[in-house]
Design brief:
Length: 236
């Protein structure tokens, strides 16, 4: 049953149960606080990593607003508070996150984010951002899982990367083969074009033989003409 329906149903008991009705209205208003955080954050050893957290409240932001960050290792164990904010930040002064967690949020803009300096792989775990802005104190509880890895070991084949490789690699191979084939074909045509501009060895050898024959015929004709002229000039 919705809050409005519950209040309407209890309207007949307004005079009998005023405190219960006011409490019910207070609970309905408290449920309007909503928190959002990244479900998973990846980081590299030694490099600062932000833990994002945003919130929306139906009540005005006052000095009573508080922000708490808690942490639990992946190996399990008790939750521990590592950061507290109320008007000013109060980072933890004990434990593994001592002097390594800082405030990077802005409550006026609904930002309750923090950052971890020099993360190590032992920091892997679950982080929870909790915000209370009285009378809004009830909200959802989003969890952020931090995964810290060495930069050299951070590469992982996701399904999207694997699909891209399977799709584009064959295409690249086909294009390369086509380019190689076209290059060879172009080279053959170029060679043919060069050879077409020159006379073949048969043609080159035929030309001197043809010229020599003509010279012989010309000499024979001249000799015959000389012989005829000489016979006509002899006396009887």
């Amino acid at each position: 049953m919705r809050c409005g329906e519950t209040v309407a149903a209890g309207g007949g008991f307004l005079l009998l149960l005023p405190r219960g009705l006011l409490l019910l209205l207070g609970v309905c208003n408290a449920l309007s606080l909503e928190i959002k955080a990244s479900p998973k954050v990846r980081a590299f050893v030694g490099e600062q990593v932000p833990l994002k957290c945003s919130f929306k409240s139906s009540s005005p932001i006052t000095e009573s607003l508080t922000v708490d960050w808690t942490y639990r290792p992946l190996t399990g164990g008790q939750m521990e508070t590592i950061f507290h904010y109320q008007s000013v930040p109060y980072p933890t002064t004990v434990g593994k996150f001592k002097d390594r967690i800082s405030w990077v949020g802005n409550v006026a803009k609904g930002d309750a984010s923090v950052a971890i300096q020099s993360p190590v792989m032992s920091d892997n775990g679950t982080f929870i951002c909790s915000v209370k802005n009285p009378p809004d104190v009830y909200h959802n509880i989003p969890q952020t899982t931090l995964i810290v890895t060495e930069r050299g070991l951070s590469f992982q084949l996701t399904s999207a990367v694997l699909l891209s490789i399977l799709v584009f690699l064959p295409s690249v191979i086909v294009v390369v083969l086509l380019l190689v084939r076209m290059g060879r074909k172009f080279g053959v045509l170029k060679e043919k074009k060069k050879s077409g501009c020159k006379k073949s060895s048969i043609e080159v050898s035929d030309e001197p033989e043809h010229t020599e024959t003509d010279n012989c015929l010309r000499k024979l004709r001249n000799w015959c003409l000389n012989c005829v002229d000489t016979d006509e000039e002899d006396p009887y």
